[in-house]
Sequence to fold (620 residues):
Amino acid sequence: MRSKIFRGGSLPSRTRYAISAIAAFFTTYAIYLYWFDVSEENGKQLLWLVFFILFGFLYNRVLQASAQPRLTCKRPEGAAGILGILFSIFFVLGKALDDTDGLETISGSINDLIKLLISFIGFSALFSALLALLFMFLLGRSSAEDEGYNDRFPLFLGTGARACTIRGVFIFLCWLPYLIIMYPGILTPDSILQLSMAIGESPLSNQHPIMHTLLIWIGMKLGGSSGNNNVGVAIYSLIQMGIMSGIFAYTIGYLARLGINWKYRLICLGLYALLPINALYSITMWKDVLFGGITLLVCIQLHEMVREPQRILNAKGRTAGLVILFFLLSAFRNNGFYVFLLLIPVLLIAFRRYWKKMLLICFLPLLLYAVYTGPVFNAFKIQAGSPVEALSVPLQQLARTVKYHRSTLSAEEYAMIDKYLPVDKLAEIYTPRISDPVKMAFNADAFHDDKATLLKVWARLLTKYPKTYITSFLCNNFGYWYPDVVYWFASYGVYENSLGISQPLASGDGFFSRSTIMTINHQFIVSTPVFSMVYSIGFCVWILCICGAVFVLKNRKILLIPLFMLSFLWLTTMASPVYAEYRYVYGLIVCVPLCVGVALVAEKFPEHIPLPGKTGDGIQ
Fold:
């Protein structure tokens, strides 16, 4: 059967050159505005002419490629344009927020608006062109290029329990020096609070998920005979290292099952094993770490459900495993429950042909969670988490409104806010990017007695100061979609405590010391162009958006189901107390290698969910 060839529209050479030159000028000017203030000294540089010529060649190449005949009717230019515009909005808006903690440069003078428009057009053209080239390459690439995926290092990069064990041990050993140097592990203030709950020095509270506190308790119990809390913390660190190294090793095996090229799997293994952030997190007592591993396992199982639903849904063991994973997703972070709730309608719609089994799979985790947070919490007298943890966004919006519009507030509005927040101090304690100072000043008792008044004043001021509310919201989360944010991402020590926990081996300036690890992480990765992007939350989110576009272009929209789960995690994080907390989205970040790998071989997945009684076209 002959393939049908689709031809794009061809532009006359002069028109193509003119469009390329105009786009190159806007892009060069946009980069100039991004790096410098407008001045004669900054503008009169040969570098800008070099940029203009390079961008001109780029745009001319994209326009030429778009006119070439192709074997598919899918035209990536539209998807590239939409995504390029979205990324440009993120980039320009994020830059404004990062510079001023507000939108003054966007809604300022005519001069500011002109600069904004130039930046938007220039970056839209640049991102769209680069994405168009990427999409054309991926659509023209055959997944057959990855055949023979087990031809190299099968005992290290292949499938099977033996290969998975070898990989897991390798990853564990790569992380072990971090534990030796920073024995017994890394503890922040949150860690100390949760540890005190685990050993009975503080009342149990679900502010930090009890499931994770239980794991800490197990580690401390196993090390209890030594009479040294350092031993218990070290055992917990070893347990967490073992779990996470096993999950990452299993992920590489799954990529092998999908037939992904061994070189890509080797890169992924290197990222998981050698990237300092994974080693540091493996010995950090945070709920976010294991939640990240659980998120990765759920993402893998969702891909398997898409590929072979009957293999998952007809096997009692696989079904039970899925139910347990959904429960753990809900129990290991408080926002995980909302991620699962949002995922339920997606699953029921996508797998409606298996609706009876899907209802059971969705219902049982909810039942387990209800028992867990109901009778189990009551039996062990576990306190619910503070409601203030869910109020970061509205409290920040009220605080910003008071800071910038206090003189226009009515006496009634002033009194309503003052009931919950100290109005006289809000201007001083309000921090646009972090809600903790405002939350610490919040009167939780007043909220417990009267929630309606807070909701009433918040809604009233929303209608009066919508721009202030929007600005406050964006200031509190732009690090989750703007790639050029600089913020801390890991800790290296043990927070001061009364539990006798310390890092006796971490001090010093020798090669095997904490300072060496910090130098490697910050000097050679965070401060190095290109490599530093692995620590950019916004960049990882952009990659997942690109994966979604590839799924659509390859007519594999069902592969969006796992991305829906990750997008729900991202959305719930937008309401978090910190504008760019890496650990909050660690689950999303560790899924990036998986999603990119799936995008490379998306053709091996079925176009639609297979009917009951039939198998998909995927890998057997």
Residues 230 and 352 are 51 Å apart (CA to CA). The chain has a mean pLDDT of 90. The two ends are 26 Å apart (CA to CA). The longest helix spans residues 110-140.
